[in-house]
Write a structure and sequence with these properties.
Rossmann fold, seven-stranded mixed beta sheet, four-stranded antiparallel beta sheet, 9 helices, 14 strands
Length: about 300
């Protein structure tokens, strides 16, 4: 590894919000780190399928397999182009420490929490509960709408002493906020080892390392013993939520809470239908731009 950290290639592409998930699934198949989506040109009640309002960003480690993986992605995108409009694929070489040293402004979340990128920034928010989340290739700095909504919901539903399961933990931001709000312990799951490393680092810096357990692997591989959680967090995608409903539902305690996010509003009806058919009731719905977060409870 060079003094500048590991070498990566950043991929960016724009697409209409209706067609985000096929590209996210393609990126997830071949890219090394988390795939990040952000609304870049939101228009209320916009039904134009040619409006490229969502940017999809992913990173791949520059190693001996990169040429093969990039070719597979480009072939997949050419197939998608026959069905719906997408922008040209942007590729840029980056180093991990370049990302980590980017300047992210502090951000207020919920009623009491402020996320800061550096320890020295906490002095400006002494009347708030602060967390230090250093930017990493795993993402999760609190700036995305889905993360903001999850933290707002945690602020409402964490009462104290809960056990929390965080599926797709990323940097661990949602689990850390759970502990900050009074949860007793958290179990963080991610299939990206870069995310596990980033989350562990953030837990150590925040002084919560004794309250967390990490699991690197898919949702379906979580050990049977890890269940009966008071609250389950799943900030994922609509497809992953629907396909893994049984795994998610099996982890909550009786009358437990499930907070799900990462849902585009065009997919909301099928997600709600899937969860309501699974012996859950809908408690709350939040919407920001064209992203939706939902809260369910076991019945």
């Amino acid at each position: 590894m060079s003094e500048r950290g590991s070498k990566w290639v950043e991929l960016k592409i724009r697409v209409n919000s209706e067609y985000v998930e096929p590209i996210v699934r393609l990126f997830n198949k071949y890219l090394s780190g988390k795939v990040y989506t952000q609304v870049v040109d939101f228009k209320e009640d916009d039904n134009d399928p040619n409006h490229l309002d969502v940017e999809i960003i992913g990173y791949i480690v520059s190693d001996d397999k990169i040429s093969e993986y990039l070719t597979n992605i480009e072939v997949g995108l050419k197939l998608f182009e026959k069905i719906f409009d997408i922008s040209d694929l942007s590729k840029k070489e980056v180093f991990s420490d370049t990302w980590e040293k980017q300047k992210f402004p502090p951000i207020s979340l919920g009623n009491n929490i402020v996320i800061v990128p550096k320890e020295e920034d906490k002095v400006d928010f002494q009347d708030k509960k602060t967390l230090v989340i250093e930017p990493s290739m795993a993402f999760g700095t609190g700036h995305h709408a889905t993360t903001k909504m999850c933290i707002e919901l945690l602020d409402i539903f964490i009462e104290g002493e809960e056990s929390v399961l965080d599926l797709g933990t990323g940097t661990g931001i949602l689990s850390l906020c759970s502990l900050l709000l009074g949860a007793k312990r958290v179990f963080c799951v991610d299939n990206d080892i870069e995310a596990i490393y980033a989350a562990r680092k953030n837990f150590e810096k925040s002084g919560f390392i004794s309250e967390v357990e990490f699991f690197h692997g898919d949702l379906s591989k979580i050990p049977e013993k890890n269940k009966n959680f008071d609250l389950v967090l799943a900030n994922l995608t609509s497809n992953i939520l629907i396909e893994n409903f049984d795994h998610i539902f099996s982890k909550i305690s009786e009358n437990g809470i499930i907070i799900i996010s990462g849902i585009l509003d065009i997919r909301i009806d099928e997600v709600i239908e899937k969860f309501l058919n699974g012996h859950l009731k809908l408690l709350k719905k939040l919407k920001y731009d064209n992203w939706v977060s939902l809260v369910f409870q076991g019945i």
